[in-house]
């Protein structure tokens, strides 16, 4: 299991080239992966993401941040210079999903669910013990806003 005592109080992250930087002053969600075709194509493998409360995340560098509407009401944020996929944002959501690979320090986090495994790539197996959902079904909760890490 994850060890909350190892979680940094303030998490930071960004894209591969540094054009996009962000900071989170609050807890983040445990990691969920998405094996849907769109995520696999955009990441080159599959997407692993965390999430933060929107009012606890702020952009500290956004000159190269570009948003693309992925489905009505939802958008994906990526760096227009280095191509890193960073954010998945529902306009009515209070949270924003953040690519786990963008975090500078992901200690204290672990994969707790796999989504859309019916669409996973043929070349790999999912071998950790986390629950797998053939379609959506993300049941991993957001931590309370005042939780540590
Ligand atoms: Zn970049
Ligand atoms: Zn997906």
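^ Assign residues to that structure.
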């Amino acid at each position: 299991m994850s060890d909350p005592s190892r979680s940094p109080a303030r998490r930071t992250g960004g894209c591969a080239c540094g054009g996009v930087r962000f900071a989170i002053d609050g807890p983040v969600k445990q990691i969920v992966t998405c094996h849907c075709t769109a995520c696999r194509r955009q990441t080159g493998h599959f997407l692993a993401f965390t999430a933060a409360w929107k009012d606890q995340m702020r952009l500290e560098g956004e000159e190269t941040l570009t948003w693309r509407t992925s489905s009505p009401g939802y958008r994906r944020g990526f760096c227009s210079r280095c191509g890193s996929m960073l954010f998945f944002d529902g306009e009515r959501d209070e949270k924003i999903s953040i690519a786990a690979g963008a975090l500078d320090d992901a200690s204290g986090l672990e994969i707790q669910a796999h989504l859309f495994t019916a669409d996973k790539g043929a070349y790999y197996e999912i071998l950790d013990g986390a629950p797998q959902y053939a379609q959506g079904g993300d049941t991993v909760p957001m931590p309370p806003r005042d939780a540590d890490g």
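The radius of gyration is 15 Å.
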